[in-house]
Amino acid sequence: MAKAESSSSKSPAYTFLIVCPDLTTFPWEVVPVFRDSPYVARVASVHALFRTLNKNDQIPFEVNVNNAFYVLDPDNNLGDTRKRITDFVSKFGWKGVVGKVPSTEEMAEALKERDVFL
């Protein structure tokens, strides 16, 4: 999920959801954490998101890529792949959860406070 938001003015915050096919039937747009975010939309892929943002200069694109949260291997079954990805994401200093499902509190904080959710 990427969030584009203008911090200096009171422009609306835009939240774009890129949802895996297994979770598309869940109504993510109406989750309580998005109650104060009227501009929530699904996008098919990261590529489609960038195409949309590049074509629309009305959307303020201020995303701090250092302010990210990630969930890695919530089923705790990736083995060597998990280690390789952990080594990679650790370079960025992002906050994340590895090898477990994030708690409700962790998810709420990530969706409210982070600019990028992976």
From TrEMBL:
Keyword Hydrolase annotated: yes
Pfam families for this protein: Separin_C
Any GO BP: proteolysis
Keyword Hydrolase appears in the UniProt entry: yes
Every Peptidase C50 domain range: 65-118
EC number(s) per entry: 3.4.22.49
Key words, A-Z: Chromosome partition, Hydrolase
InterPro entries registered for this protein in UniProt: Peptidase_C50, SEPARIN_core_dom
Reaction(s) this enzyme catalyzes, per UniProt: All bonds known to be hydrolyzed by this endopeptidase have arginine in P1 and an acidic residue in P4. P6 is often occupied by an acidic residue or by a hydroxy-amino-acid residue, the phosphorylation of which enhances cleavage
A GO CC annotation given for this chain: cytoplasm
One Gene Ontology molecular-function label: cysteine-type endopeptidase activity
Enzyme class: hydrolase
PANTHER family: EXTRA SPINDLE POLES 1-RELATED, SEPARIN
The protein's name in its UniProt record: separase
